Amino acid sequence: MKKTILSAAIGAAALGLASAASAATLDDVKAKGVVTCGVSAGIPGFSNPDDKGEWTGIDVDYCRGIAAAVFGDPTKAKFVALSSKDRFPALQSGEVDVLTRNTTWTISRDTSLGFNFRTVNYYDGQGFIVKKSLNVKSALELSGAAVCVQTGTTTELNLADYFKSNNLQYNPVVFEKEADATTAYDSGRCDVYTTDQSGLYAIRLKMKNPDENMVLPEVISKEPLGPAVRQGDDKWFDIVSWVHYAMVNAEELGITSKNVDELKTSGGPDVKRMLGSEEGSKIGTDLGLTNDWAYNIVKLVGNYGEVFDRTVGPNTPLKIERGLNALWTKGGLQYAPPIR
Amino acid sequence: MAGMALNSETSDTKKRASSLINDPKVRGIFYQVLTLALLVLFVWTVTQNTIHNLQKANIASGFGFLQGRAGFDIGQSLIAYTSDSTYGRALLVGILNTLQVAVLGIITASIIGFIVGIARLSQNWLIAKLAQVYVEFFRNIPPLLVILFWYKGVIAVLPQARESLNLPFQSYLNNRGLFVPKPIFGDGAWAIAVAFLIGIVATVFVARWAKKRQMLTGKPFHTVWTGLALIIGLPILTFLALGAPITFDFPVAGRFNLTGGSVLGPEFISLYLALSFYTASFIAEIVRSGIKAVPKGQTEAANALGLRSNAITRLIVLPQALRIIIPPLTSQYLNLTKNSSLAVACGFADIYAIGGTMLNQTGQAVEIVALFLVVYLSISITTAIFMNWFNAKMALVER
Amino acid sequence: MATTSSTFVRQDMLAQQPAPLGVSGPSHWFRTKLFATPKDTVLTILALALLVYVIPGMINWLFIDAVWTGSDRTACATVIQGGILPDGQSGACWAFVEAKFQQFMFGRYPADERWRPILVAVLFVILLIPMLIPKAPHKGWNALALFIILPFISFFLLIGGFGLPHVETQLWGGLMVTLILSFFGITVSLPLGIILALGRRSQMPVIKTLCVVFIEIIRGIPLVTVLFMASVMLPLFLPDGWTFDKLLRALIGVSIFASAYMAEVIRGGLQAIPKGQFEGADSLGLTYWQKTRLIILPQAIKLVIPSIVNTFIGLFKDTSLVSIIGMFDLLGIVTLNQSDANWSTPVTPVTGYIFAGFIFWLFCFGMSRYSAFMERHLDTSHRH
After folding, report:
1. Cβ distance of C225 and B52 shorter than 8 Å
2. Could you list the residue ranges that cross the membrane (chain A) (predicted)?
């Protein structure tokens, strides 16, 4: 083990790839000049490198929103692709500043893993996808099926619970990587693939014949997906949370990336307060940022609705309706505390 | 060390300060104390860092989590396991799966390896070349690639369940694995197992008696055939005498897949085949060099004594070759066991894969890595001890 | 005492006759090498039958029925699978390899910057070739350039700096990463292995115990566990907030693993040195390091060069395991691209693996041939 640290130190000195961080994540981020976000390695609509290697997706845009709020520059976001196994150690160790990796908010992750969750940028639920040729209409008909699932996820646990409580038999086929699990389903190793519904729509696109597969109606779990940060840094936690709230409030107030410049001067008092054009406002500085933090988010990344439509919405290949993710005023669950 | 002793003696006569620095003994102690201090400092720093990091992350440490409910299911298990079982039991399932694939792999790899190794020395040019191609092929590609090749390249493109390939004995092969009839033991089936054991014990006695008789009188005895007759014949006789108490559960088409019977999943098959074929190429090389290392004079002397070629191989060459073969063979067996951790690439639930899942559900990274170390090191040490014992038994006894 | 006048004694030698047909020529070769005994005859016929059964099908699949050009999966899929090939035809999809070739070599390294890894590769080959030729001069300078200077130059060339745009290691991939990992592992593990081996044979109990424990623990556990520790545990061991590049972590894991094996190989060499060499060096009054550097190590390493190369081969193959911790080496990137919907057909995975296997095989086979050559080369120099 002595050699470990020796070679580590030599390697670090030689290659200059190591970096040190202090307890205050914001200072650290500012010092580095970049926000490091943990994202998943390839879920279309959430975080997925396109053909040119550019990251796209709703989780990626969340991270860009943080970069916009902190630096006024959405490109100052660095993405680290993490498997479901790597993601928690990566956040714990400080390899990433925030985990925006379609991670389900659960009590054990909030407490015993030492993370903090507050916002939900996508309300999801677990579902099943099957081959149409099997003539299955409901998940309750799946007794005896082979189910492909990604290991180390809440999905794996929900699956076990659901089949147990409905007295169904199944044969789990587990994989470490999402891509392996979906390929196995696609090649016929399993009858069913299960993950969050948004993921089902996304992986359906990747299949050889998307039209031969159908998503079953059952949603067997609640999967509130949101960003996680380490416990013990309330300032950073606040910033990460309010980036989302700013995006939701912007949508509620009708501020978009197109009209934000205009509204900054002509908008009502609540709009002006949020965009930092109110006289003597300290909202931004109290947050540890500049007063135009929310303006930067909306201007450079967009409001929540814009991001949703651009990444997973009806006009994207994923074709996901707003549903639970509509604003609370439109029958959905996206509700942000006021910026005041 | 001779020089050191000399130095320390002369330093007794001339007690100068510089001689202390030059005294190798003193310097040795100094270096060791320095190393030890560095090590303690290092371990202390790492421990402090880890404790600090864990506290900061609010992670409870300790092995208490092993008692908790696992909550996930495992596809392949040798013992009863449900999602209600504990993490500890899940870990046990993983250990047993690792051992299962390692033991079966070692047996198969040894058989293939010995055959190929002997074939490489064959007089028959074609056979020797084929064996050489096999060895050069498998030795030079990564085992992970072999596993993936079988899993994604071969088994995944087998027919779907509805178009399963029919094999003899009502077995079926499809992309969900190999389905074979499962024996169901009725009343009195235990008697067959007892008969089998009696057969083995009787064979051991016959072998001893035959050896003794051959030593005394020189008359050979067909131990092999008698033994086979005892070990296979006795259980069959019992089976018939009891009125065939074993029935078979045959796989039949179900809604999604074949149901009933026993199934060997594609994950297991790929891992098992890949490990066996890969390791066999190394074993073949070991066997070949072991046999070649037996001096030619031994074979010639045996020829001169009038032994037939079969007997020469069995009685003269192999026992001597084994002495050279066993130590490197041990490390190949260990390599195979360690390579079984590549199971994670094809979704087989070995100890590494299950440990990974547990890590994800509980976040107990340090504890689980410690468990990995303990499990793999105990397997390694146990194998090493057994093979050392075997080696000592086979070693040349010098009189 | 004997006269040679007897008429029955031949006076001159008979002209040499060719060997009878039975013991020479092709028929003899066939008789002794293929059909010597009935058992051999049966084996030969069985082997021939196997070859006749396998080879035409393989050639057909690999070359004749294979698809060589195409822009997406339709080129390699049959009509039923939604492609253009007639049903029932199956052949390798080389068009897939062709389309993804750049990725297989460089990963997602930006296309405009790919001259950088190519330049590194060219420099590497230029420096490596004289290193491999035993007679080439200036081995010391060559080694310095290859093992010390080249890594530094390559580092800045690949990652950027001095005016070159920065390329994150996350974008590195393919054969490039495989070669970087192997080269780094080899460069680090040899000196580290020598130190560990010397430590294991040291007379100082503390150092000896440390080395033994380190070597045996590393050799007792699988590489994936070491890589897992390097990728997941290392951050926990480090002070608050210290992080390492993922590639660097894999490099550390691979090097540590290889050095434990290297140490055992070197120890084998050290043990084979006759005691007289140690005593002779001692009697000349050489210090421990002089003795080790000038007398013992040159002999010991020379003895085990073939085993060292074998360890390198193992290391090269082992780098494929980094795909398990989410890095895209050659095998990882081939696997990743198989799930590309544009190219997914039943034959894509096999084709990809055959390609990757061929590359790995080429490198490993080359190394093993070189090892055999060195073995012969060194062997003759010892025979007087």
Report:
1. no
2. none
